[in-house]
Every structure is written in structure tokens, then in C-alpha cells.
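Example complex used in Figure S2.
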Amino acid sequence: MRPMKISLREWDARHAELTAAGLAEPSYGGPLSRHAAGGDRRLLKLAFDNSAAALRLWNFLLTEEERLAAARAAGMKIVGAMKDLGTVPVMAYSFPATVAFYPDGAWWLPCFKELSTDLFAIADGLGIDDSFCPVRAMLGAFVSGAHFPRPDLLVASTGATCDDFSAIAQRLQGLGVPILWWEAPHRRPPDPGEEGVELPGGLAAPRAQVEFVRGELVRVREALGALAGTAIDDAALAAGIRAANEIRTVLADLREGVFATPAAPLPSLEMLVAEMLALHFCSDRAEALAVLRDLRDEARARAAAGEGVLPADAVRVFWVNPVADLRVMNLLEDCGGRVCGTEYMICHALDLIPEDVPPMEALARMVLADPMAGSAADRVRRILRDAQRFGAEGLIVSRIPGASHCAWEGAVIAEAAAAAGLPAVEIEVPPVADALRPALRTRIEALVETCRAGGGRAKEEGVGA
Amino acid sequence: MHPGVSGRIVYSSPFVPAELIAAHGFVPERTIPRRRSAPPEGVCPFAQAFADSVGAGTGAAAAIFTTMCDQMRRAVETVRGRDAPPLFVLNVPHTWQTAGARRYYAAELDRLGRFLQGLGGVPTADADLARVMREHDDARRAGAASAAGGVTPGDGAAPVAVVGGPLSAGDRVLFDCIARAGGAVVLDATEHGERALPLPFDRRRLGGDPRGELAAAYFDGIVDAGRRPNTELYRWLKARLAARAVRGIVFAHYAWCDAWHAEAARMREWARLPFLCLELTGEAGAAAVLAHRVEAFVETVRCAP
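Predicted assembly (770 residues):
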């Protein structure tokens, strides 16, 4: 079947067809509609890629709760990593019989459940109202205990992190949930004469900051060791870093292959989900790698055949920040656009972790490379560099409602993009954006039309794809 | 101060030690900014007001921002390129329970010292810093003694605590509102009150390690909702609420100030006292509503058994 986007209902027929043709699915496989029947009602309104690789991706994503429950039943230790987005799980998976996940991921539950759960109501009742980022759903999830097992160890980075998240996590601790806090300082450039260290992503930080973060991570490592009942040596940690880098390498191949190909081989929605696998491997590192390899191979095969899910003249848009409502990724494509590059606040989880320095220092460097730990100016430089590399014609900054950083940096990013000749719009996407859909459509269509009429600088200069 | 160097160093965070600035020959000026306009949605009115005041050109030799809150950390970026003086971002760890965090803060103070010298400030010998610290400490002790003598509520006045983050100049009308309504603020636990004061200096350490004592007094002494964990805030409050026989809490936070906003419900449950939560939005016309709410609250406290 040629590449195309299909509905959930169409996926049932497609699943039957694939199964009849001999598709071998992993243990978590099956028709996607069962997840909607189980409460993930947003799936009914999404358009999905029709490949078997996408089927595996969605099934993998939507069965994480079951995996965590199985891990608990098997006696494995469960670590809840919060906010650092990419570092602590690399450490945790280096320990035996230990699995890590981000409770932060609960921020998508209101979307998947179409607000049918009481997660926000619980948060409201605890004083965390809708002036906070939708990640407040995490608080509701902890209190209700309905969406993930209570972690054996909860670790949260703080400092140069979103105040929303930090305050919500503190509220959780105020309810009696122990949290190990560790400091991720605001990244600054080395002062004149001060020794600097190169970070992933082309950034730099003072050696003193790297050393400080390394010390903080040592505390986390010790806590993980106490939980696991055994310490690990640097060799084991280095192996964990190599395993994470293997996933990041496949993901980088996938992103390059999709973003740089004229007719997008995979839709933006599946690409968004794929990027998120880099954070904590969806609670199964080996399987995450297999899922991403499938996607990469599918994208390669389609590109080689000259096939895509979108027309080759779709306007190439660089997307900044993740959306609280996944359906908006479909909307971009309905408006004639496509994603050709992303900065979902997690590029430090996509860049390779250095393997030529001691592992704890490598992880410290990764922490400091977090785009949210530094200045908006640093973030803008990365965004514009990648936008140009992928030949973006326009840019969308997707604001997260209530997120403290968005109010300040959204305009900074959009203005910088415009100054660089890249038409840009800012939109705000709540967890279920149906009521705003006409307004969002209007803004996205305006961007697409602007790009078609004038073309962004990146395209004029012929860079990118 | 070097010849030709003069000027004020403006800042708003209590984690910036005035002593260090003064010791380098500058005039420390802890600003209580005045709001000029309602900020955009999502922006803290106080952070916006401070950034605007710095960006408008204060004639200061430099301005210092800190990383204690996300809003301030990001506000500084909107100031650069405007008519602003040289800017310094002081990195203040949110965690406080480790020696590493304390050392990091101390190192940041050293970096601030180098920045001040780069502006033409005088190099500071330990003895000079110690002298300035003694002077500031004496002034704070005198002020505390004076305040302690002045907070005894008058006949029938309701003893209340004001708890929260920073308040811009216009919003400090809250204190007048409380007084007019018949209340007496016996504990100012806002960012410009005693909650945000450093510990009294250990005079014995001033001779040997004044820089270490300075860092310790500020880092260990100031309690704040944004520290992780923020248990010390509650420990500090518990002692003072009891000692001052506080009968009601006025809790004030700015819209979009996540650290303080998130504590409101928890503190209400914890304090078990009449509790008024005021969200300051920076919008015109809010002052009248605030006055009415404060009046009703103080009346409630006064009438409570």
C-alpha cells in the first residue's frame, strides 16, 4: 500500500490486512482501536501513518503503563526521573533490574483522554490551577495512582528548569512524596580567561559548571546504587551511554531522512512520538531501539521509492516546542505544511553524549546542553542553524499554556526568525485544542501562504534539502 | 573606588549581598520597581517591572539579575540591547542541602566581585569586606530591634503576617490597606521583609573568612518558596507565627509567579489560620478590589475567637 495517512477506523482494517499478510507483531502489538476503547479517545480524531512501523510505534507508546506494571511485578526497581529529560534514565538503565520513566509524560494524558480523567481537577484541588503548564496533570496522576506505578525513587532536577514544573514537583513533595533534588544550573558562557568546555550541540560552559553538575550527578548515581542494591563502575555507565547513543544515532538518521526528503516519508505526528522515545526509551531501551530502526528503515525505503505521505511541495516548517494536543501536528499538514525540523526542548537528548571523556563528565555536559538551561539567545542560534540546515521556509513557535518560559522566549524566537528572513508565527496549543481549531488553522494557513508567496530565506539560499 | 568610578548597582533579589557591592566602592541599590503597564499574559508583573526599570536606563553602573526564578532569569534577556547598563546574572542554586551548592554560590559571589572590579571597582581586601559587613550587620540588627519594638499590635488590632514573594512599589499599598482595616502586620515575610534577610554574621569568622561568612549568611539565612526543598520556609514561619501570636495570614503572590502561587494551597492547609490569598495581576483597578478583600479579611480575623 502506498504511504498515506489513515484514521483509527481505517487502521483496524489495515491491521487485519497486515496480520493476514503475515505481520509478526511484538507482545504489545494489536489493533490500535483497543487503546481508544480503553480511554485514549483522542486517537479517534488523529490521522496516522499507515506503515507497520508506525503501528509498532503507537502500540509501543500506548502500552507503557503495562510495561511499568510488569516491571514492578517482576521486582524491578522503578525510577521516576523528573524534568532533566534525558540524563537520569541513561544512568538508571545502566543499573541492573532498574527501569526509569518520566512522570512528566503525564502532561499528554489530558490530550489522549480528551480531558475525560480527573487529573486537572485533582491538581486544581491542590491549588495548581490552569495558570500552570499542563504538566500539572502529573500531580493528578501521582495522587490518583491510576496511570503509572509509584516510583521507588523520585529524582528531580531543579535550578535552571521551568518554574512550573519545579513548583508542581515541590507541591508533590509537600504531599509527602520524597524527592531527591539535584541542581542543574543556568548555563553561562565562560568568562574571559576562564576554562571552558565544549558541550553537545556546539555550546560551551565553564569547566566549573561542568564539575558542579558532575558532583550533582554523583549524588544521583549513589541514590540509584542504593536503590538497585549495587554500585556500578564507570565501565557499566559507559556502556549505558553507548546504548543511549545507539538510539540517538538511529533517531538522528530517521530525522535526517525524513526532514531532508522533499516528499516527507513520515508524518510529523509520528516523528514527534519518535523523538520522545529518546528520553526514557518508553521504559524498554532495547525495544525502543527496535521501534526506531523500523521507522528509519520504512522512511529510507519510502524515500528510495520516491514515495511520501505528503506532497513534495508542502511548505517546510520548523517547529519549536512540543504541542499539548497531538492533533495540531495533523493540522499543520492539513494546512499544506510539513515539519522539516524540530526543537522540542529536548535537543540535548538527541545529540550524542560524548564518549571520549569519563562518563560522569559526559553526562554533566549533556545536562548543561539542555536548551532550557541556557539563554533564549543560545536556543535561537540552534533553532536557526537547524532551520537553515533543513531548508525551512517558515517557523512555528508553539506556546505551552502557562509555561513560564514561553511568555518570554516565544517572542524572542519568532523575532529572531523573522530577522533571519524566516516567516514565523506563534500559536498556543492547549491539551485539547478543538475549540481553537479555526483560529489555529487561520494562523497556520497564513504562515503557509506567506511562505508560498515569498519563500523563506533558507529556501532562497538553496540550503537544506 | 577608583578615581572616576561612581555609581549605583541596582538589583532586586535578596540573594545579592549589598556588602559585596559596597566593599567594591559602589552604592548597592535594592530596587523596588514600580509597574508601568500590565504585562503580557504569562509574564510576572514584578519581573517585568524590574526589567523595564533596568532597560529604561537607570543611570546605574550595572544591574544584577539572579536565577532564583525562571521569570527573572529570562527577563534579563529582554533587557540586553536596550538602554541598559552592564548586566550580571548571579547563579543562585535552588538546592541548599549540599556543600556543593553552598560552594557554588560562594564561587558566584567571587565572580560577581570580579565583575565589579571589571567595572572599575576597587579590589577588596578581606579586612575591608569585614568592616563593611560589620556596618551592614549593625544596621540590620538595629533595624530588627526597631521593627521588633514597633510591631506590637495596638488595642484591638488584628495581628497578621504578610507572606509571599516580592512586591512592586505600587503593590506595597497592601500594608496600608491592612493598617486602615484595623490590622497590624507583625510579620513581614515577603521578599523585602525579614524572611529575606541574611543571618546575623558570626563576628568571630569575620576576621578569618569574611567571604565564607558572607556566602553562608545569605545562602543559609534566606528562606524562599523557590528553594528545593522549601522545608526551611515552613520551619522559619512556624517559629515566627507562634512567637508573634499571628492570627491571620495575608498571602500575596503575582500572577505567573509559580513558586509562590504553588505554595498558597499548601500553606493554607498547613497554617490552620484565617488565610487570604491575593493574586496580584498588575491590572488597573485591582487595588480597590484588594482593599475590600483585605478589609473583610481583617474584620474576620478581629472577630475570630
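Residues 458-465 of chain A have pLDDT under 50 and may be disordered. Residues 38 and 113 of chain A are 9 Å apart (CA to CA).
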